[in-house]
Amino acid sequence: MRQSGGKMAKWILLTAFALVMGCGTPYKNLAYSYAVLNQTRDVAEGFDRSFKAFGLAEHERCARAHGVKTPAYATCIDPAYSFLVAWTGQRNGVDTGKGILPAIQTTQSAARRTMDGTYDYIKGHESECKKKTPPPDCKYDLMLLKPVGCALIEVADRAVKLGAISVTENEYYKLALAFGNWALGCGR
Amino acid sequence: MWEVIMALESTVVLTVVTAVLKEAIPAIIEAVKILLDSPTAAEDVRTKPLVFSVAFGGGDGEAVKVQRVIEGALPPSS
Asked: Do B63 and A69 touch (CB under 8 A)?
């Protein structure tokens, strides 16, 4: 009888959950989207701090081994420096227009504006958005963040190969990996 | 005999009800909490601007600072 009570509890639980999900707030998808966006920002900024530490360590190593302002220093620091240029999009203080981080931030800002637009739409159309088949404007399409997910995993792969971040020690690597896996079809 | 059956059934019903409450309530509360929290969560974020602590174009950021150090250490021809 105890077992049958458990089964009944599970059935009630599932029904309640289905009801709750079925009558879900139209803001649920949006709140989740905002959370995902914030996580992508945290990963990008976490990587930026890691790359700073890597650049500094490489600079110190090369300066110690070859002395600064020498051709040997330039050769030694080149892989790290090229990586930093690709990441920040700046060379000698000049914007190359090709930085990975600025591109990520541009996409994030655009995503944020779209999410805010979705919020305003829902606010003005709550009853329509609560319907079983709501208008498409009631939901933010998370796949719009796909370029950010792809950029994060791409830069993470390059950083690991270069030794800029450690797969086991970098707390943002796994998150970047998760975003890369979620944004299926990157580079195709 | 009838009283015994009734007493047994009451126990069974009580067991079932307890089991249902024990298993279902926390999950339902959690689901309702999400349901209630989400509009607030979305509204909270909607009213806050998106702030990047790394802001390019403004010259901030962490990695870019070490880039300046490296550029200062490169030989003039690089």
From this structure: no
| Interface touch B54/A69, C-beta < 8 Å | no
Across the interface, do A16 and B24 touch by the CB < 8 Å criterion? yes
Q: What is the pLDDT of residue A10?
A: 58
Of A8, A56, A84, the CB nearest to B16: A8
> Residue holding tokens 């250490």?
B73
Q: Which string of b and e fits A99-119 if b means at least 16 CB within 10 Å?
A: bbbbbbbebbeebbebbbebb
Contact A54, A77 (CB under 8 A): no
Tokens of A60: 């110190």
Residue B3 pLDDT > 90: no
Residues of B in contact with A16 (CB under 8 A): 24, 27-28, 31
What is the ipTM metric for this complex?
0.78
For residues A103 and B36, the model is more confident at: A103
